[in-house]
Amino acid sequence: MALLRSELLKQRSTRTLLGLFAAMLGLVLSAVLLHSLLPAEQLSDRHTQLMVLGRGEFLGALFAALLGAMSITAEIRHGTIRPTFLFSPRRDRVVAAKVSVSVVIGAGFGLVAGAAAVAGGTAALRARGIELQLDGRDYVLLVTGSAAAAALWAAIGVGVGALVRHQVPTLVGICAWLLFVEGLLAGDLVGLGGVGRFLPGSAAAAISGQDPGTLLAPAAGLALLAAYAAVAALAGALATSRRDVA
Amino acid sequence: MTRRFEERDTPIAPSTDDGVVVTVSSLTKRFGEIVAVDDLTFSLRRGTVTGFLGPNGAGKTTTLRLLLGLAEPTTGEALVFGRRYRDLDQPAHRVGAVLESTDFHPGRSGRDHLRALALAAMIPPARVEEVLELVELATAAERRVKTYSLGMRQRLGLATALLGDPELLILDEPANGLDPAGVHWLRRFLRRFAEQGRTVLVSSHMLAEAAQTVDDVVIIDRGRLMTTGQLDELTKDGRTLEDVFLALTGAAT
User: Fold this and answer.
1) Which of these, A27, B121, B149, B193, is most buried using a 10 Å CB contact count?
2) What is the pTM (predicted TM-score) of this model?
3) CATH number of B2-104+168-248
4) Among the listed ranges A216-220, A239-243, B11-15, which one has the minimum average pLDDT value?
């Protein structure tokens, strides 16, 4: 509990969190609004509507991963990891506290991103006179799925940050993975095909009910992403406990 | 400012009876081919200020990291109060340390830096205000650390080390960036700290300053112990600490 309060104060006491939140919200709204400029016949399709409103899940998960990663890479970058471990020599517990706090804040990021995408997207489509093909379950999944995906990606971010340690490669790596690498792997170019839906970004999209033809069912996506998050967090905690602190 | 500290703090009772605060035995640390610390053995007496001296790259900081559990020895051991640092019950209440004067998030205020660490070690918030007063940073506590001078960062580092009211203080180059008044203040502070029955290990390049502050010295070079003992003994033949240091570390040419 003491460590949780400490980690929470660390997150609250710099402008990083607010900056990430503002950037995320701005990007969610721009992405949704830009997508709502697609041709009307395309936007009338349920699948496309889910994709547009699902931008919240994608960006929520991305920014949650960044905030989780920065909870440890910023400490390494600025050297505060040294006093942190002097005050709490059980390093696995410190990583666990970072995971817990990042998961909670990440869920908040995902909730806001999901809700903003749904609100902005429906408003933009209605304004264009496009009929929405989505029902209540879709909206609930889009928002809660976004929160769950972001929460779990925050844990993945902490784990990756603890493993990689250097801030810039960590953040660039996370962005590159979610923005390009996974798409390439799952796409026709590499031709993983059906295996692509088992990658962590696709699992996150599945939770919010996107692309039901290709992706896993939401519950399966949730279970798979939770497994990724657990493995990443455990690997990060183990590596942090075993390796010397510079 | 210092008066407050003197009034409040009473001499502490020794918590272990053998008087041994730090025991470093056959400590070795290799990084690949490089031997950073080589079969190093020394100990610290309770109630003393010990200067940990050596040229750049001698292995001082690596030794301190091993002592504080931030790195694992290749062989040998480094114990504080008879135990490995990480096996201490409440390490921040026994040992206070500053390894780098730059270990702050530039965007966090001095007070929040201390509060976050205090929360982790269950140190009451009132103690944060006490150490801020003690190092004369109370009026700057709300400012982000990036606005601090090097001397202010040194003092915030010292405040961090003192949060848990420790019995042993380990400082790596604490006088860097302090002005003459700051150096004088630090020297008086460390002497007073030791007079209360507490112990200080301070690494330094500044031999003239060290000679005025320390009781004992540990001199290392290329990871090896060159000498250890009481400063009075080492300099009784009229040589200065600088003479002794340069003769031992082969830097006198």
Assistant:
1) B193
2) 0.92
3) 3.40.50.300
4) B11-15
